[in-house]
Design a protein that fits this description.
mainly alpha; about 260 residues
């Protein structure tokens, strides 16, 4: 098999399992917590650092929301098995960067991997992320090039793959779909809160050798849980979050109009 064909095949395989394989990085987080310590020995500095890390992750979530919310029908769906695209999305976030969802994922993970304050950890995370998603993006772009031809090539030539170019911004072609965002991104929000809460409790336990649950984090975790359960009930048992778009119901959205 030619190397280019092997890279495409690997990318397709990683695309199918992209919601699960990154979970192996949890091992890195657990190991890094052995070195957990308050910055300058101060709990206030610790809270400030936690807020900064959470801000990175929420910035990534915001990027996902801005992408998914404005994505027209047939783009940024939720397919796991293979790439599909009814149209090429080139407005909104896709006008400034080709991979806004993956950029959002990177920022979410960066906030998490900055949390333990082991400075090598975010570097390792960035390298693993680049290696992992490079193959996925490669397979997606091969698919899009075959399907959309010159239109895709012209768009890709002027739109950066990962570092946004704000000067190229074009307003979204469709209206913001709040129901679609609630339907899909409540899981992302809940996962972020749960991971940070688990890291906070684990870090404090390892540092102080006793279980301590910060009241502020407890409140955030409870609110996130209530919101998550509410969204699940609304999605599974009522038509409240439904709209006229018919979408598949697998995993999270990806790029360019490819479900992902």
């Amino acid at each position: 098999m030619l190397l280019i064909d092997e890279m495409e095949a690997t990318g397709r395989w990683l695309f199918r399992w992209r919601s699960y394989l990154p979970l192996v990085t949890v091992v890195l987080l657990l190991v890094s917590l052995r070195h957990f310590a308050y910055p300058f020995g101060s709990h206030k500095w610790d809270e400030a650092w936690e807020t900064l890390c959470l801000a990175f992750s929420f910035l990534g979530l915001g990027l996902r929301v801005a992408t998914v919310g404005y994505a027209p029908k047939g783009t940024s769906g939720r397919n796991m098995k293979k790439q599909k695209a009814e149209q090429l999305n080139m407005t909104g976030m896709y006008s400034v960067v080709r991979n806004p969802i993956y950029l959002g994922n990177f920022l979410i993970g960066l906030g998490i991997f900055l949390f333990p304050r082991v400075w090598l950890l975010p570097v390792v995370y960035a390298l693993l992320f680049a290696l992992y998603y490079e193959r996925i993006v490669f397979a997606e772009e091969v698919f899009l090039r075959h399907k959309f031809g010159r239109r895709f090539e012209d768009w890709a030539a002027k739109t950066p793959a990962f570092l946004p170019r704000p000067s190229h911004w074009k307003p979204p072609a469709s209206r913001f779909n709040f129901r679609k965002v609630c339907r899909h991104e409540h899981q992302t929000l809940y996962a972020i809160i749960l991971v940070f809460y688990a890291l906070e409790v684990s870090g404090d336990y390892l540092l102080n050798h006793k279980l301590f649950m910060d009241p502020a984090w407890n409140a955030v975790a409870i609110l996130a849980t209530v919101f998550f359960i509410t969204m699940r009930i609304l999605r599974k048992c009522t038509p409240v979050l439904n709209d006229r778009e018919r979408e598949t119901t697998d995993s999270g959205p990806s790029q360019y109009g490819i479900p992902g």
